[in-house]
Amino acid sequence: MNASLSVTAVLLLGSGYLxxxxxxxxxxxxxxxxxxxxxxxxxxxxxxxxxxSAWAVYGSLELASEAGYGYLAYYLGVAGxxxxxxxxxLPIQRMTRTHQLxxxxxxxxxxxRSRWVGSLITLVxxxxxxxxxxxxxxxxxxxxxxxxxxxxxGLLALGFCALIALFAILFGARHTRLHARHxxxxxxxxxxxxxxxxxxxxLGAVALFGIFDGPADLQAWLDGPGLTEQAAIPPLDPxxxxxxxxxxxxxxxxxxxxxxxxFAETLSRRALLQASWSLPLYLLLxxxxxxxxxxxxxxxxxxxxxxxxAYLAFGLSDAWWVDALAFIAGLAAASxxxxxxxxxxxxxxxxxxxxxxxxxxxxxxxxxxxxWLRRAxxxxxxxxxxxxxxxxxxxxxxxxxxxxxFVGMAQCLxxxxxxxxxxxxxxxxxxxxLLVGVSIWLAGLWLPLLTAQPGLVIIPPGLEALEGEPxxxxxxxxxxxxxxxxxxxxxLITRTSAGERxxxxxxxxxxxxxxxxxxxxAANGADFQHQLAQALGEDVAEREVSRALSALNxxxxxxxxxALRRLRDRIQANLxxxxxxxxxxxxxxxxxxxxxxxxxxxxxxxxxxxxLEAYRSRLTGLARELDGLRRYHRRTLTQLPIGxxxxxxxxxxxxxxxALAELxxxxxxxxxxxxxxxxxxxxxxxxxxxxEQQHSHLYKQQVSLAAGxxxxxxxxxxxxxxxxxRGGSVILVEDHSEMKWLEDELVHAARLASIxxxxxxxxxxxxxxxxxxxxxAQNLRYDTDDPExxxxxxxxxxxxxxxxxxxxxxxxxxxxxxxxxxxVFQPVAVSEIGEEALHLIHLARSGEDVGYRNLCPPALxxxxxxxxxxxxxxxxxxxxxxxxxxxxxxxxxxxxxxEGVSLTVTDQGxxxxxxxxxxxxxxxxxxxAPGEGTGLGLPLVYSIIAEHHxxxxxxxxxxxxxxxxxxxxxxxxxxxxxxxxHEPDSDC
Length: 988
Description:
Blueprint: H1 7-29, H2 35-38, H3 41-48, H4 54-67, H5 73-83, H6 89-99, H7 104-112, H8 115-148, H9 153-172, H10 183-211, H11 215-223, H12 225-231, H13 238-254, H14 256-264, H15 269-287, H16 289-300, H17 304-307, H18 320-357, H19 366-391, H20 398-410, H21 413-421, H22 427-450, H23 471-493, H24 498-506, H25 525-536, H26 538-552, H27 561-579, H28 581-591, H29 605-615, H30 621-638, E1 643-648, E2 653-656, H31 658-664, H32 668-671, H33 683-692, E3 697-705, E4 708-719, E5 728-735, H34 737-783, H35 787-814, E6 826-829, H36 830-842, E7 851-854, E8 861-864, H37 866-883, E9 889-897, E10 900-907, H38 914-917, H39 937-947, E11 951-955, E12 965-972, E13 986-987
Parallel strand pairs: 7-9, 11-13
Antiparallel strand pairs: 1-2, 1-5, 3-4, 4-5, 6-8, 9-10, 10-12, 11-12
Helix pairs in contact: 1-9, 1-10, 1-18, 3-10, 3-15, 4-16, 4-18, 5-13, 5-15, 7-8, 8-9, 8-18, 8-19, 8-20, 9-18, 9-19, 10-16, 10-18, 11-12, 13-14, 13-20, 14-18, 18-19, 20-22, 20-23, 22-23, 25-26, 26-27, 27-28, 34-35, 36-37, 37-39
């Protein structure tokens, strides 16, 4: 040992190391270190090495000199906890991540549904961890004293504490949210773990190769002179060994800094599983140099009375760099532990003491207020550790301080096991057991720390065998036994509240909380923001609501009760990460309350479904069979080929199966949980109609859907409420559109049959007079030579021929629309058909103020019946003339279109209403005033175009126009052979 090092040299050494940490943190913060390295699982494992505090560097030496290999309990206990990660640590990780719980106090307050539970756990943790903090500071002060001989090592230690607090504030308290990951902090703690491991291994190498001449010389010494030294160390009693293992096992996940690093800063489930074997490996490497340093000090006769058994590493050599290695190893271990303890404890004190006493309502800048409060608490925690070191720690060895801390935190072990494995536990039992155990611990171990008096050790009747055992051993057993027994008995004889049962179930599945199916006073995300603003302020409320909406992938306008309940729960979880579960629950219950309105609370069926899905892999036996039956029934209803939906008696939609989703075009995920009256049109009105009426059926209701007009039949079944169940209604929705269309076709066919009979009679009655008129006109040609009379007779003959053809058309219509047998199709110029139709239209007296244009190219020729095609154009031109306004224009045009010719008639009228357009080619359908149209013209057009194997398309209005109608006839250039006539395609 070199006690001649100056204070300045030690300050430079320590400050230089801490400056190196600042540079490492800055490198990660600025992105100089790639994120794939900073977020590597190995970094997380090394960061967990924060467990190896100054106890691992100095305290283990002290314990090894007193109990031999018993010092290994410190390493094996935490190794056992991490080896049990799948059944112990992973469930805790899942709970903390799901519910945004950043500390042990958060977890207990959430599980036992009490802010006072969180406050109690915080106080116990503070009392337990303060001796551990004092231990860290004491090792720094003692090391400085040994290296410099300074009479005021406490002040130098205070300076190092200030630098450590500054680092924790700069790189650990930047985020307001306690559950936020700190990549910079993790990487820095990982570097510290590497530094202390390297320093310890180097010290072991100094002992093995500097003092001994290698392993062979070491073994020779152990078998010879060293045998006496080892025999002087009493072996650790097996019962003491097991108790130490239990204490260090519990410390692995109960100590605030270990809980924080293991669960709040975790990368992923995979990283924790990897740490389950890599952390024990790291601790094994940390433990290996301890006996080597002890044996080396014994070999050279280091003065344990002068140095202290904890600081034998400073006696391995007179070289200054060996002392520097021992100092840096202790500083790295102490600083990392102090940083994480201060961060964890400051969060617990803030959430469960400060915010409980002073709720954060009406703060103008909540985030900034919380951030500065936490920074002040970080400094206060570290200063508290230094203060305890100066007042109490200097009078006790490291083992006394460390054991006091570990026994105190072990009092939370029964509660943690209940959180994981006993849903029936309640807060009365937990608090009672914890108070009993903590009282015994305070009287037995804390009292000797504060006073020179021996601890008050209570040995229950029947355990007199414990007399004469070490105080820490007796206190540990009695405190834990009394804690557990009180916990169990009180929990069994007192009632567990509904909130605790819900929280216990929420701790076993990936859900925020077990919600009840009750409406909220808020109607959407904007209402959430407005109501939370009363407690958090406008900016904070907007950020928290937006964050929750983003996490749930929800819209702020979503007003479904189920969605709003999920949003409320997510906001509560997020606020829990900001200010603890107790304060978060109070704020949410106060400003986002449920509306009970006398309704009984029932389980949210959506939560029940998700819970069963999460439990499915864990179910066995009858429970698994019942779940299989549930899933089968659920799948049957979901995949039923008939639309099905279910409503609760409060009007909330509980089910919307696949068939109904396909029919409606609305996915179930977007409407499940909505109120009936908030469903998209026309479903809200349609389903409300059958729900409100007494009858259980609605037949062929016409609705307009995205796929067109549909005719739906609805059937309702009412579910009566049971003893513990609310009622509801199930509605089946059948699509009877095709049946309705077939019925309409049958009616249409019957109408056509009656019209055919009428047409046959009319044709017969007209045919005879027309034949007479035709004969008279022919005779008139031979009775006069007057040119005008002859021209008139020719026109009469021409018109009677046309009437005869019309009569023939009526006969054809009466016989199913076929044209009269014997009609021959001949090549016809489209322009000539148009000219003849225009000539006939001009013979009419009406419509003289409407203009006509024939734009048909003369070269276009088709095969067809000229007279019948002229009849088609006359009908179309007549309708266009009647629809056109005064001064309007009707245009006939034609163009080549594939294997045929498209012939169009375009007017400038008001257009055709869609409801009429769908029935335009049905007999007696007309837009004209009564007495002005028969409604038979377009059905005849339809029949004639069908004879020519053509198609009819109607555009009203035509593309690019606001008014008017264009009827396009497509006719093949060459007529197909065969007698079968297919119905023309009509696009109405």
